[in-house]
Design a protein that fits this description.
It contains 15 helices and 25 strands. It is α/β, with parallel strands linked by helices. Among the domains are: 87 residues, CV3147-like; 130 residues, 3-Layer(aba) Sandwich (Rossmann fold); 47 residues, no CATH class; 84 residues, 3-Layer(aba) Sandwich (CV3147-like fold). Strand 2 and strand 3 form a beta hairpin.
């Protein structure tokens, strides 16, 4: 954790297993188990579990003492530092920082009114220019801004990072969108909510050529798969939908197995032509059927426009006078970059990328990682938050252009540029509490905001604030995220599955434009989805083993799923639930329970899996 505000300059290492087990600063423990160590989201006030920790999350580190019994010799033996392999941790917290690469990078932000260009040498702005944008010509605007830079300087640029807003403008104005044939593969199991439900009527009419739901779809296990109705897919391709400019195919459980989506794509191309654009929801990755379908349809609707712009940019690049073989990257909605090829595959990743790079650029110019950012334009002002150097993301259920999607984009409040009191209110709403974060003002209209309106803020007006979007594009890294659910399969080793997912994640990052020589090892999260009856199956197996029926159910701890499953088990088994637990807190290991302090064994124990199998461990030998 890197400190902010009054803690700026501090670096704390938080060690985690399935729980947070130690916090150290300069190798000196601040807290170690059995202390309770927690990270609390400063925006929501919710505790952040280990599996949800990510770069850019803004948190408080909170430590609390456990019950005194856990600090006795027996308690420390069960749940102290040595139980987690931390006996020698105090001297093993040396930090590491990778050296920064020295590159000349050109960043361009194509806005509706002006196009900005910034040339960076390392993290220093060498030259910045602002030109009037050409209406309806994003690539022409980019070329004009680049050519406004001195030839000898732009000739040293080895990378061009471009902020394109054509996708967002097309969705907002309902203009330039392709007509899409929307095919859902799920049959009656996916018929409760029709495709494109919840879309604004005007946008739905502009995008949808036709929609159908055909039989098929997979499941978490192969036996749940329903065969694809190939004839229905062919009829859809031969229907009026066949005159669509692109197709979006979404199958139930396709992130687990995308085979039926690929099969449907082959049939559609056989009916409509081999060059037909067919986008598959399995590339989006999330299990949420509706959000995945919406994101895929938006990608298909934007595919023709984005492909044209990418082709124009590729054709224009050799005439811009950049360094030979200069790389071209475009901005993403999370404040990072991706390749042109990745943009063609998932155009929706660029939605919201303009504000995202402006927010990131504002933080870099102000040398702040946590702040509220207000981008003041000619007609409107956008207010967002910077968290760990990247834009704070909008929460679940947010919409883009009125469409509920799973795309990550910045959390923004938009007001009129001349409504200064509304601007102050929006900035205040973006702060977790009064006075906690400074306010960075950027954009061409930043100088027109009177200081007295923002009297309660620590206002920062950085140099080059008028070109913050271009600065953010130039200074951002390549980003990517790979979501996939993998079936292990019989006889297949878990480490083989992990290696496969790691290789796929690495390949996905390279496709996004990452340099494989500078990539670290991808982190793979393994999760097995329960079938729903495991807790009762384990209970019955234990009853059978000990030869008597259970009379009550009690939770083992007060944390996460281990608090909820006993409730479900008691309800299903018809047994009373004890309002108490065996730890008085949460620990990750089964032997770390209060009865163990007085010699009560936690065996015999029964285990059950999602396939109906059960196993029992014997009682301890005296």
């Amino acid at each position: 954790m890197e400190g902010g505000g009054s803690d700026a300059g501090r670096l704390v290492l938080v060690e985690a297993r399935s729980e947070f087990v130690a916090a150290l600063e300069d190798g000196i423990p601040l807290a170690v188990v059995p202390d309770v160590i927690a990270l609390v989201d400063v925006t929501t006030g919710w505790a952040v579990p280990v599996e949800e920790v990510r770069y850019g999350l803004r948190v408080h580190l909170v430590t609390l003492p456990s019950d005194p019994v856990w600090y006795t010799l027996e308690g420390l033996r069960l749940a102290g530092p040595a139980a987690f392999g931390l006996a020698g941790l105090a001297g093993a917290a040396d930090g590491f920082r990778a050296p920064a690469r020295h590159l000349m990078i050109l960043g361009v932000d194509v806005g509706p009114t002006n196009t900005d260009a910034v040339l960076l040498d390392g993290d220093r702005a060498v030259r910045a220019v602002k030109v009037t944008s050409l209406a309806g010509d994003a690539v022409g605007s980019l070329a004009a801004a680049v050519r406004a830079l001195p030839a000898e300087l732009r000739g040293r640029a080895t990378q061009l990072a471009v902020g394109l807003r054509v996708a967002a403008r097309a969705v907002r104005e309902r203009h330039g969108l392709a007509r899409v044939g929307v095919l859902r593969v799920g049959g009656p199991a996916a018929d409760a909510v029709r495709p494109l439900f919840g879309w604004p009527e005007a946008l739905r009419d502009a995008v949808c050529a036709d929609a159908a739901n055909v039989r098929g779809g997979g499941g978490l296990v192969p036996r749940d798969t329903t065969p694809l109705d190939r004839d229905a897919v062919a009829r859809f391709g031969a229907s009026p939908a066949g005159r669509a400019e692109a197709f979006a195919v979404t199958a139930v459980f396709s992130p687990v197995d995308g085979g039926q989506e690929r099969e449907a794509a082959e049939i559609l191309r056989a009916e409509t032509g081999p060059d037909t654009t067919v986008l598959l929801s399995s590339d989006v990755g999330t299990l949420d059927l509706l959000a995945r379908e919406n994101a895929t349809v938006l990608d298909a609707a934007l595919s023709v426009l984005v492909a044209r712009v990418a082709d124009e940019l590729t054709d224009t690049l050799p005439r811009l006078g950049l360094a030979p073989a200069a790389a071209v990257l475009v901005t993403r909605s999370d404040g990072t970059l991706m390749s042109l090829e990745y943009l063609r595959r998932q155009p929706g990743l660029s939605l919201g990328s303009g504000p995202a790079c402006t927010i990131r650029g504002a933080g870099l110019l102000a040398r702040l990682k946590d702040a509220v950012v207000a981008d003041i334009g000619e007609r409107r002002a956008r207010v967002g938050a910077l968290t760990g150097g990247y834009p704070q993301e909008a929460g679940p259920g947010e919409r883009f252009g009125g469409v509920p999607v799973s795309v990550r984009f910045p959390d923004l409040i938009t007001v009129r540029a001349d409504a200064h009191r509304e601007l102050a209110e929006a900035a205040d709403r973006m702060r977790p509490a009064a006075g906690l974060l400074p306010l960075i003002l950027v954009g061409g209209g930043a100088g027109g905001v009177p200081a007295e309106v923002l009297a309660g803020f620590d206002v920062v007006r950085p140099g080059h604030g008028g070109v913050a979007g271009a600065f953010g594009a130039a200074a951002s890294p390549v980003g990517g995220q790979y979501d996939r659910i993998v079936r292990r399969g019989p006889g297949r080793r878990l480490d083989a599955v992990r290696d496969e997912v790691r290789d796929l994640a690495r390949a996905g990052a390279v496709r996004a434009g990452a340099d494989p020589r500078g990539m670290g090892a991808p982190t793979v999260l393994l999760e097995r989805v329960p079938a729903g009856g495991e807790e009762v199956a384990a209970l019955r197996a234990l009853e059978k083993h000990i030869g008597r029926a259970a009379t009550h159910i009690a939770p083992i701890e007060v944390g996460g799923v281990n608090s909820m499953l006993p409730i479900a088990c008691a309800a299903e088994a018809g047994l009373p639930l004890v309002d108490g637990d065996a730890m008085g807190r949460a620990f990750p290991e089964a032997q770390m329970v209060l009865p163990g302090l007085i010699g009560v064994a936690n065996t015999p124990m029964a285990l059950a899996d999602d396939k109906g199998k059960a196993a029992r461990s014997p009682a301890p030998t005296p």
